[in-house]
Amino acid sequence: MRQPLRWPWLNFDVDDVSAPAIAVGVDVTETKAEVPMHWHRKGQLVFALGGGVTCRVPSGLWMVPPHCGVWVPSRMEHSNIATANARIFFVYVEPGAAQMPDRCCTLSISPLLRELIIELADCAPDDARGEFLGKVLLAELPLMPVQQLHLPISAEPRLRLIAEALAEDPADRSTLAEWANRVALSESSLARLVMKETGLSFGRWRQQLHLIVALRELAAGASVQQVSGDLGYESVTAFITMFKKALGKPPGKYLSDIAQQGGSAFAA
Q1: Residue 226 and residue 244: Cα distance in Å, rounded?
Q2: Which end of the chain, N or C, is less packed with Cβ atoms under 10 Å?
Q3: Bond from prior residue into 8 cis (ω within 30 degrees of 0)
Q4: Domains of the chain with CATH codes
Q5: How many Cβ atoms sit within 10 Å of the Cβ of residue 118?
């Protein structure tokens, strides 16, 4: 099924479909699109064949680079923001139909699973071929490795304020002391709060945000030079060094390898 990127779908409710697995394909227009916060009784896989998608859930931001997917468990509130010209597939899974994590996570998508998703999106929910493809998909989906491509976000209001400000302006290079002053905390108190709520130091937390933004923009077609400047790095070399240290490969090779290998080389 093909749909515009908006919620709710105009002609059907995915939770009213009894099939164990259904897939919906979406082609985003030339401008980015956003689906507001909502939830389903079914679990959902958000899969990007082209372009990028960022999923927001109460506990974090999850980046969906090309040929990867984000698993959103049943009844978890979430929103999706897609880059311009993205090609996306949503796979909806009945609770209990597959042994999937009870938390949000980024999954590598194998070439086989990718083709199953694409083919299933062209089938009606009650189609015999769709039923067969759905069974194979549900057998493959739990085998997909998990990647660590998310930004933990706390419900703590001061951290959420900082996260939203950095997401709006990722080039902001304010120091920990400057952020602490803005949220009326001491520098040491803010450092402890970030570590307690996210498990990361402030510097590592901000770097993770930069990785998410960088992957989203690179997937949308931005150059390494452009992304480096947008994130406030003094040089392209400094940005590439950060990216390679965090993800093991420079940006161009990381994305090209994902495209060529269906994401399977990057399990964490």
Answers
A1: 17
A2: C
A3: yes
A4: 2-147 (2.60.120.280), 152-266 (1.10.10.60)
A5: 16
